[in-house]
Specification:
CATH class: Alpha Beta
Largest sheet: 6 strands, mixed
Number of helices: 4
Strand content: 25-35%
Structural class: alpha/beta
Radius of gyration: 15 Å
CATH superfamily: Metallo-dependent phosphatases
Length: about 200
């Protein structure tokens, strides 16, 4: 399965400079959040494949105007063509706003999904907005990752952990790909592609 993951900024390559056929060949699109609903609708229309998304910390608009033709997996596990995809959106709470959680709240959200993880024998792709604590994050509260994601990676290592939130255009020196044990961690800022 060929996957396109996007996050945080509308990719000029797939939007401003789109040419017919550019999105051909993708079997799945994953959004890690903080993208316009119209952009996700454009991607799902042009690619003709499923688009799964989680909420970013700025995605309050999705509550009123969810992207049409796309499937929210925030707080759920879905199986797409045999690939188990689990989603947990939002960031660490650093101020008021939707989809911002304390560490305890995110751990609770994760526990609610665990029966599905156990029932399906694990996860192939973990999709989040925020990174894991200590992996591709910073010490600044607004861009600090969740420690509960590390516990999940240790106990139920997915093949891929795809997150957003870490803007490389802010001058953050966050790699796009990081290996941790058997898991490949991908920062989907703008876009990244991979195969499952």
């Amino acid at each position: 399965m060929r996957v396109l993951a996007v996050s945080d900024v509308e990719s000029r390559s797939y939007y401003d400079y789109y040419t017919p056929g550019k999105l051909d060949g993708f079997d799945l699109i994953i959004s890690c959040g903080d993208l316009l609903p119209t952009y996700l609708e454009f991607l799902v229309t042009m690619a003709g494949c499923p688009l799964l998304y989680v909420h970013g910390n700025h995605d309050g608009i999705y509550d009123e105007d969810p992207p049409g033709g796309c499937e929210c997996i925030d707080g759920r596990l879905m199986v797409i063509e045999g690939v188990r995809v689990m989603g947990l959106g939002g960031s660490l709470r650093y101020g008021p706003g939707p989809h911002r959680y304390t560490e305890r709240q995110m751990a609770r959200r994760m526990r609610r999904v665990m029966p599905s993880v156990w029932a399906h024998g694990g996860v192939d792709v973990l999709v989040t907005h925020a990174p894991a604590r200590g992996i591709n994050d910073t010490d600044a509260l607004a861009h600090r990752g969740f420690a509960c994601f590390n516990r999940f990676l240790a106990r139920h290592p997915p093949r891929y952990f795809v997150h957003g939130h870490m803007h490389r255009n802010y001058g953050m020196h966050v790699p796009q790909k990081t290996a941790r044990g058997s898991t490949m961690i991908l920062n989907a800022f703008d876009h990244v592609t991979f195969e499952v």
